[in-house]
Each structure stands twice: as structure tokens, then as C-alpha cells.
């Protein structure tokens, strides 16, 4: 273990027994998400809706998207410059709804959310369902950075529990790690969390995750993420936090806040920075 000179809240003598990892920008290049996963959704959305029309899974996905539209609309009455402006989805439960128009409204809504990189649970659930076929047909392979499998192995050997917390749905997370460029990494991962537990910018989400995992006090946990706002929220919940500053990530703009966090550009560096239980 080495100490570091950052004026962060981490006490690097804390004994870490659990790591919680973000995906995009942390275990996985941002380019994989934006240049492979997201284009797959755009290219296959119409086909997916037509193929799955009438299925319980798609009905549920549409219901979630519709509820989100209603919620945003309600919120927009209260906020002057509403940040969402989510395109209308026709009520899927209306008896005489024009199916063609309903489908058009769903597509408009999904594409709008994706154009804005919205991390809504509704969008992420649909995406997760869509990627299944892409992975199964080997059209997509999940990408993790080259040192990630070795780090997983190392943590596993030392009985450090590995959890994932991503805006991507739990189903999408499992696909990415099951069909990874290094084979299935799922056996290394003890559990998964997505935004159904709460958004990644809220300290309460991290508190809920910790009470679900139940592996001791917050300072036994290490959260690694590329997002400084997620890092701030997790720190407020008392976790040790390390920023993933990969060469391929966009630079973090708030330089001042950045200096208050530990940073690594590869998981290898975590092993010198933190005191993992062994
Ligand atoms: C689980 S793979 C899909 C990635 C994704 O959709 C996403 O929004 C990634 O967000 P993260 O919280 O992992 O940065
Ligand atoms: Mg991320």
C-alpha cells in the first residue's frame, strides 16, 4: 500500500473488501458504448419493435417509456426551461390507438433520448433487451480494457467482492461481461446495480447499495468511476472513491474538484494505492 498526496477524503489505510465499478469510461472504452452499442440500437430499433410487437417484454418497455414521458411532462409544467422536452408517446393503452402512429412516437422518443445521452431507466431497459440478440448472434462483443481481467482475478483470489454499478441496465451489464473480448467475466462479479436502485448522482443510491451488499462500513468500499459527479455523490455517502482517467476519456473540466480525488489511468495502479484485504 502507498499513500498519496491528494487532499481527498480517502484514508488509504482503510481496508477495502469490496469494489464497485462503473462501466463506460472505467472498465470499458467510451468508444465501445458510443460507436458500437448505441449505433446498434439506432440501426435495429424499427426491426426490434416490429418483431417483438405484442410481446410482454416490449409492452413493459413501452409502458416505462410512456410513464417517463408523462413524468417529464408533469415536471415541465413546474420548470420554466425544462431540461427534457421529451417527445410525446401516444397512450399505448388507449383502445383505438393508431398502431403506426404509436410506433412512430416511440421511435421519435427513443432517438431523442439517445441524441441527448439520457440515462433514463426506461431507455436503458429497452437497450438491454435489444442488445441480447446482437451479442447472441456475435454481432457485438463486449469490450473491457486489457488489464481488467487480471484485476478481477487478483481481487477474486484475495476475496475482494466485485460489484458493478452502471446506468446501463443489469441485463445489459451481464451481456457485456458475459460476451467480453476476454471471454466470460461474469463469474468474477458478485452482483450488479443499475438505476432502478437510484440515479448515480445521488448519495442515497450508494447508501442503498451498501445496505444491500452489507459488507461493513462505507470505508471498506472502493467505487471507481470516470464521472466526477458520480465520484462526488459516492464520496458524500462515505465510500472511498477513485477516478478513472483513461487516455481515451474526455478531460475532466472541473480541475479544482479533480484534485480532490484519487486518480488512476489503469486498474493496475489501484493495487498500489489501496489497502485491499488479503
Ligand atoms: C451496461 S453497457 C451500456 C452502457 C450504457 O448504456 C451506459 O449508459 C453506461 O453508463 P455508465 O454508468 O456505465 O457510465
Ligand atoms: Mg461511466
From TrEMBL:
GO biological process per UniProt: L-methionine salvage from methylthioadenosine
InterPro entries xref list: Enolase-ppase_E1 (IPR023943), ENOPH1_eukaryotes (IPR027511), HAD-like_sf (IPR036412), HAD_sf (IPR023214)
Record bears the keyword Repressor: no
Residue sites binding Mg(2+) per the record: 22, 24, 226
Example of a GO cellular component annotation carried by this entry: cytoplasm
Keyword NADP: no
Annotated cofactor note: Binds 1 Mg(2+) ion per subunit.
GO function terms (MF aspect): acireductone synthase activity; magnesium ion binding
Catalytic function, reaction form: 5-methylsulfanyl-2,3-dioxopentyl phosphate + H2O = 1,2-dihydroxy-5-(methylsulfanyl)pent-1-en-3-one + phosphate
Superkingdom of this protein's organism: Eukaryota
Cofactor (UniProt): Mg(2+)
Keyword set, alphabetical order: Amino-acid biosynthesis, Cytoplasm, Hydrolase, Magnesium, Metal-binding, Methionine biosynthesis, Nucleus
Major enzyme class: hydrolase
Pathway named in the protein's UniProt entry: Amino-acid biosynthesis; L-methionine biosynthesis via salvage pathway; L-methionine from S-methyl-5-thio-alpha-D-ribose 1-phosphate: step 4/6; Amino-acid biosynthesis; L-methionine biosynthesis via salvage pathway; L-methionine from S-methyl-5-thio-alpha-D-ribose 1-phosphate: step 3/6
Cell location: Cytoplasm; Nucleus
E.C. no: 3.1.3.77
Binding site for substrate: 166-167, 200
A Pfam family reported for this protein in Swiss-Prot or TrEMBL: Hydrolase
Subunit structure: Monomer.
Protein family (similarity comment): Belongs to the HAD-like hydrolase superfamily. MasA/MtnC family.
NCBIfam families documented for this protein: enolase-ppase
PANTHER family xrefs: ENOLASE-PHOSPHATASE E1
Cited function: Bifunctional enzyme that catalyzes the enolization of 2,3-diketo-5-methylthiopentyl-1-phosphate (DK-MTP-1-P) into the intermediate 2-hydroxy-3-keto-5-methylthiopentenyl-1-phosphate (HK-MTPenyl-1-P), which is then dephosphorylated to form the acireductone 1,2-dihydroxy-3-keto-5-methylthiopentene (DHK-MTPene).
Name of the featured protein: Enolase-phosphatase E1
Organism expressing this protein natively: Dictyostelium firmibasis
Amino acid at each position: 500500500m502507498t499513500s498519496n498526496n491528494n487532499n481527498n477524503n480517502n484514508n488509504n489505510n482503510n481496508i477495502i473488501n469490496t469494489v464497485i465499478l462503473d462501466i463506460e469510461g472505467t472498465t470499458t472504452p467510451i468508444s465501445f458504448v458510443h460507436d458500437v452499442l448505441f449505433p446498434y440500437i439506432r440501426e435495429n430499433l424499427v426491426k426490434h419493435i416490429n418483431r417483438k410487437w405484442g410481446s410482454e417484454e416490449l409492452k413493459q418497455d413501452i409502458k416505462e417509456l410512456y410513464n417517463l414521458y408523462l413524468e417529464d411532462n408533469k415536471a415541465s409544467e413546474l420548470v420554466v426551461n425544462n431540461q427534457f422536452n421529451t417527445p410525446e408517446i401516444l397512450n399505448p393503452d388507449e383502445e383505438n390507438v393508431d398502431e403506426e402512429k404509436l410506433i412512430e412516437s416511440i421511435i421519435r422518443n427513443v432517438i431523442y433520448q439517445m441524441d441527448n445521452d439520457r440515462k433514463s431507466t426506461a431507455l436503458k431497459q429497452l437497450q438491454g433487451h435489444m442488445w441480447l440478440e446482437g451479442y447472441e448472434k456475435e454481432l457485438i462483443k463486449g469490450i473491457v480494457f486489457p488489464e481488467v481481467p487480471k484485476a478481477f482475478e487478483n481481487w477474486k483470489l484475495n476475496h475482494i467482492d466485485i460489484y458493478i454499478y452502471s446506468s446501463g441496465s443489469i441485463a445489459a451489464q451481464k451481456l457485456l461481461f458475459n460476451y467480453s473480448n476476454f471471454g466470460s467475466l461474469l463469474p468474477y462479479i458478485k452482483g450488479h446495480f443499475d438505476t432502478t436502485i437510484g440515479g448515480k448522482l445521488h448519495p442515497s443510491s450508494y447508501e442503498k447499495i451498501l445496505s444491500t451488499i452489507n459488507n461493513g462500513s462505507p470505508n471498506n468500499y472502493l467505487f471507481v468511476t470516470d464521472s466526477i459527479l458520480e465520484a462526488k455523490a459516492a464520496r458524500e455517502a462515505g465510500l472511498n472513491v477513485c477516478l478513472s482517467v483513461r487516455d481515451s476519456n474526455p478531460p475532466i473540466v472541473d480541475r479544482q474538484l479533480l484534485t480532490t480525488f484519487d486518480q488512476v489511468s489503469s486498474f493496475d495502479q489501484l493495487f498500489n494505492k489501496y489497502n485491499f484485504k488479503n
